[in-house]
Specification:
The complex is a heterodimer of chains A (837) and B (218). Chain A is an all-alpha fold and 837 residues long. Helix content of chain A is 66%, strand content 3%. Chain B folds into 2 domains: 9-81; 90-201, Immunoglobulin-like, CATH 2.60.40. Classes of the chains: A mainly alpha (837), B alpha+beta (218).
Chain lengths: 837, 218
């Protein structure tokens, strides 16, 4: 029943929408998938971890306040500083902006939810569970203690025999699932679920920043995940990737870690810069200058950031020419940074700036981040880096960058959007006092820490004697840090007061021009009763009454169709209306999936590998269950969307968000695979103790079986989505069966090859070969499952010539598996020949 | 321990670099902050300036003018700090392990001798250190003489340094290397030319090559 008459009765429309979009109360809250709720949970959880990380920081400063302090011994101190860095980076900064993006993006883009609400919820649970593993480790005194970048061989089994390092590797990898999920979801959401008419060049800058950030996460996290998996394999099964005595190399870890770790800095900075570019024009009371310049500089920053990781490794003995290249690349980041900096100052200079509370925090950003940027240029200068690398100078620099470039903008964001979250405005102005305490405390702590470093104090030492002249510097830093802590406590009090006792806020209190302020405050689960059509970058000034019109149901989709949750999808660049996207309602399945995923990770952590296998299989089964009963059993064709326009459902178009999700997931997967292949070639070229004592003799029969299987699977998958085949159920199911069989044959071939590898613990070459083959074997095995599941979906009536989404997603997987399989075969056949000659 | 209280040419060159960069950075910082203050003290002050002035002038020209000479200067300074590879330069093999430093030299008779946690060099003469590690990554650093370089198992890294005058200089491991990281300190004793051979002559002969030390690859 399509109820297109509801537009005449807004109250009834809101009630209908509320009924289908709401999250149940009580335990039903665990089933929340809505972006407003999940985003809020990410933000609150991140701030809880910020509190934990902050307490750890206080312990560090208490220990270092006086020389020869007996407060913490080295065992505890090493855990404390490792966890401080780990918590702040992985459990605070990244999840905080993920939560903010989840909460804001659909509202800013004029949509009702993120593209994959259940994935948001699953990501949240993975984050919570993975983070909890680390915190439990800390409470039990088993926290990782090798520094937050976990350098091998210190983190290898020989030198860290306990469970501490495993807790880091397993906990962080678990949390990274949520980062990858968020990356995929943010890109798909920004690409597809915008209001009609919002072409890319009309998109709010915050969305541009998040789009680029998400792409960086997609390519930045896989090297870290691969590194972590390899290190865990080395620790658990003795496969020597990082052991120089057996052809491994500790530098491989550093490359993989910083290949992630440097982009990570920009991954944290860009969302905060997005907040700057969003808030600043509001307080300058004019549009931002240089919109296109800013977009170009964000993209430039992303590219550059992947070319600079070696500047964390200037002291590992790399030739000067290479150092000069990375030094120049590092300083080149100053250009896109300066473009944004001056675009912001220019906007203020040409506008009518108002010094409201969020603006005060933005000014804090300018002061602190400018200094962090300048010391960053200094550190990019190779000879200077040799002196201050691994000293407190670097500690000071990175806090200027991260606190300036992330925390100040995020505190501004908190005050700016809090009325939106709660519908409440502040009664007191504790925020100003909090700002000055944080600002003064911060500079007191870290400004003189530059000098501490120049006077020779290395980082990560748990105490010092009074011969070096560092006492007063450290004491001042410690006093400053406690001032800062009081400031953060006051900030927390202020926020709690505003949330609980604030007065009713009026709509759009800052006079902003972005769409999120067109919702009610606090927003309903569905954001907009009907969706806007966008014609400019400042939708709220174009049509003053837009919020009321939308609430009255006078935009798109101002009705409920058959109790389905719907939002609109657009063509990526033009923002032309393309599809009606159906979204899922509250469900516990993401929670259950995360729980069985936790079984896998805890199984690996405690070395109960049978339990881990059960957890893995259960996770895959659960993920397949997400689609159960989901989809249409009949073609729908064009459906009315209001405003006299029509669009097909997302299951019947080529550019469905889930099709994009698979493409993006395969990009990330391909990056992981490339990191693995890079690792193998890196060891061959650089590591000591090569060539290996034995070479693999890959059997021709097994290789032929693998090639034939991969080719058959890829070809069959392609045929299964050909229009002529799709139309006939028996034909498409036959081709799917061929794809399953092909993957099965490839799996057999790769297992035979793996069995031919002589003892992979003997040498890194054998270990890398084994893992490369296992990687492809796993993909072939999943290929069998996916092709089989395609048959199930087809039999259940979810597939037709028009509704081919399921099979196209599967076909992407089979083609990809064939690709990585052939590369693996080339490597394992080619490398022994090159080395043998 | 201060990198600014220099006692050798490498550290001195880097300290000069630091003072140059500090002055430049301070001027830039003050300029930007003054601009920002002006914007609030005199609202609308920039209304006459076109957007491109901010973007091209501030975003492109400004960093180009500052960074190009800095990079050229740093490249030139860095090149002079790299080991010369001159065979006449005295060589010392340095092996770091948890948690001590081992130094192996050739004495006047050409026989290998060694010392632990104290490195003896001749003042006024450059010395080339060939550094590796027997276990985890460490980092060799004598702040008053030169920058640091990592000691990495399986690799040999090279550092050339010189002390201008005889004296005792403190060294420390700069890469976190486990529980007793802090204790991994050492002394660098620079001797006058006339004493140096006697000092080396008094050192015990080096043990047989360490079987645990992995084969190095530079």
């Amino acid at each position: 029943m399509t109820d297109t008459t509801a537009a005449t009765d807004p109250i009834r429309l809101h009630k209908q929408l509320h009924r289908i979009w709401r999250t149940p109360p009580g335990f039903g809250r665990l089933s929340a998938v809505n972006h407003t709720i999940v985003g809020r949970r990410f933000i609150i959880t991140a701030f809880v971890f910020f509190g934990i990380g902050g307490i750890l920081a206080m312990l560090i400063r208490a220990q270092l306040a006086t020389p020869r302090s007996a407060f913490l011994g080295p065992e505890i101190y090493n855990q404390v500083f490792t966890m401080h860095g780990t918590v702040m980076m992985f459990l605070f900064a990244i999840p905080l902006f993920e939560g903010l993006a989840m909460y804001l993006l659909p509202k800013m883009l004029g949509a009702r939810d993120m593209a994959f609400p259940r994935l948001s919820a699953y990501g949240y649970w993975c984050y919570l569970f993975g983070g909890s593993i680390l915190i439990i480790g800390l409470v039990l005194g088993l926290a990782p203690d090798g520094g937050w970048f976990m350098y091998t061989p210190l983190s290898s089994r020989t030198y860290t025999p306990g469970i501490n390092a495993d807790i880091w590797l397993i906990g962080i990898t678990f949390v990274e699932i949520s980062a990858l999920a968020a990356a995929i979801e943010i890109i798909a959401t920004i690409f597809k679920t915008r209001a009609p008419g919002m072409s890319l060049d009309k998109m709010p800058l915050f969305a541009w920043y998040m789009l680029v950030t998400a792409f960086m996460m997609l390519f930045g996290f896989p090297p870290l995940i691969v590194g972590s998996i390899l290190l865990e394999i080395e620790r658990a099964f003795d496969l020597p990737f990082f052991d120089p005595a057996r052809g491994g190399d500790p530098l491989l870890w550093q490359h993989l870690f910083w290949l992630f770790g440097h982009p990570e800095v920009y991954i944290i900075f860009l969302p905060a810069a997005g907040v700057m570019s969003t808030l600043l024009p509001v307080f300058a009371r004019r549009e931002i200058i240089g919109y296109i310049w800013i977009v170009v500089s964000i993209v430039a920053m992303a590219f550059l950031s992947f070319g600079l990781w070696v500047h964390h490794m200037f002291t590992v003995g790399i030739p000067h020419l290479a150092l000069a290249f990375f030094s120049a690349a590092s300083t080149a980041v100053a250009f896109p940074t300066a473009v944004q900096f001056f675009a912001w100052i220019g906007t203020l200079a040409t506008g009518r700036p108002q010094l409201k509370l969020p603006m005060l925090f933005l000014l804090g950003f300018f002061f602190v981040f400018a200094m962090g940027g300048l010391t960053g240029v200094m550190l990019a200068i190779v000879p200077f880096n040799w002196q201050v690398h691994d000293t407190h100078f670097v500690v000071a620099h990175l806090h200027y960058v991260l606190v300036g470039g992330f925390i100040f903008p995020m505190l501004a964001a908190a005050y700016y959007w809090l009325p939106h979250f709660t519908g409440r405005a502040p009664r007191l102005s504790l925020g100003i006092t909090a700002f000055w305490l944080i600002f003064i405390g911060f500079n007191l702590t870290f400004l003189i820490m530059h000098l501490t470093g120049l006077l020779g104090m290395p980082r990560r030492i748990y105490t010092y004697d009074d011969a070096a002249g560092w006492e007063w510097l450290n004491l001042v830093s410690s006093i400053g840090s406690f001032v800062m802590a009081i400031g953060f406590a006051l900030f927390t009090v202020d926020i709690v007061l505003q949330v609980t006792m604030g007065k009713r806020a009026r709509r759009n209190p800052w006079g902003a021009k972005t769409l999120e302020w067109a919702t009610a405050m606090p927003p309903p689960a569905y954001n907009f009763a009907s969706l806007p059509s966008v014609t400019s970058r400042t939708p709220l000034t174009d049509a003053r009454g837009i919020a009321v019109d939308l609430a009255r149901g006078q935009g798109y989709l101002g009705f409920v169709r058959e109790g389905r949750l719907e939002t609109l999808g657009v063509e990526i660049t033009s923002g032309r209306l393309e599809q009606v996207i159906r979204l899922p309602n509250s469900t516990h399945i993401p929670l259950y999936t995360a729980l069985v995923t936790a079984v896998f990770f805890v199984g690996v952590l405690l070395k109960f590998y049978l339990v881990a296998v059960i957890g893995f299989v259960a996770t895959i089964a659960m993920l397949l269950m997400w689609t159960r009963g989901w989809g249409d059993r009949a073609d729908r064709g064009l459906m009315p969307v209001g405003q006299g326009e029509e669009a097909p459902p997302h299951t019947e178009v080529t550019g469905a968000p889930s099709n994009w999700a698979m493409t993006l997931a395969l990009f990330a997967n391909g990056t992981a695979y490339a990191s693995l292949a890079f690792g193998m070639l890196f060891l061959w070229v650089v590591a000591p103790n090569w060539p290996p004592p034995v070479l693999l003799d890959p059997g021709l029969l097994a290789s032929a079986l693998a090639v034939a299987g991969l080719a058959a699977a890829a070809f069959a998958a392609m045929r299964s989505v050909a229009p002529a085949v799709l139309a006939k159920a028996p034909q498409r199911e036959l081709w799917l069966a061929v794809a399953a069989a092909g993957n099965g044959a490839a799996l057999a071939g790769f297992i035979m090859l793996m069995m031919a590898v002589p003892d992979p613990t003997r040498h890194a070459y054998l270990a890398a070969t084994f893992v490369l083959l296992a990687y492809v074997a796993l993909h072939a095995a999943l290929g069998v499952v996916f092709a089989g599941y395609g048959i199930v979906r087809s039999r259940a009536g979810y597939v037709s010539a028009m509704r081919s989404l399921d099979l196209r997603i599967g076909a992407q997987w089979h083609r990809y598996t064939a690709g990585i399989g052939l590369i693996a075969l080339l490597l394992i056949h080619g490398l022994p020949r090159v080395m043998g000659s | 321990m201060s990198t600014l209280d220099t006692a050798g040419p490498a550290a001195a060159s880097i300290a000069t670099l630091w003072w140059v960069m500090l002055i430049g950075a301070t001027l830039i910082f003050l300029f930007v902050m003054a601009l920002l203050a002006l914007v609030f003290i005199r609202p609308g002050i920039g209304r006459g300036t076109p957007a491109s002035w901010w973007l091209v002038g501030g975003g492109l020209a400004f960093p180009a003018v500052v960074l190009t000479p800095l990079l050229i200067y740093a490249l030139w300074a860095g090149e002079r700090l790299f080991p010369t590879g001159d065979p006449a330069v005295a060589q010392v093999d340095v092996v770091a392990r948890q948690w001590e430093w081992n130094f192996t030299y050739r004495n006047a008779a050409g026989a290998p001798v060694q010392s632990s946690n104290t490195l003896h060099i001749q003042a006024g003469q450059p010395v080339q250190l060939n550094i590796t590690s027997a276990d985890v990554i460490h980092s060799f650093w004598v702040p008053r003489l030169a920058g640091k370089i990592d000691a990495i198992p399986g690799h040999v890294t090279v550092l050339q340094l010189k002390a201008d005058a005889p004296g005792l200089y403190r060294g420390i491991c700069a890469e976190f290397c486990g529980t007793a990281h802090l204790e991994m300190q050492f002394a660098l004793q620079a001797h006058a030319a006339e004493d140096f051979n006697a000092v080396l002559g008094g050192l015990p002969p080096a043990a047989a090559p360490d079987v645990n030390a992995p084969r190095g690859r530079p």
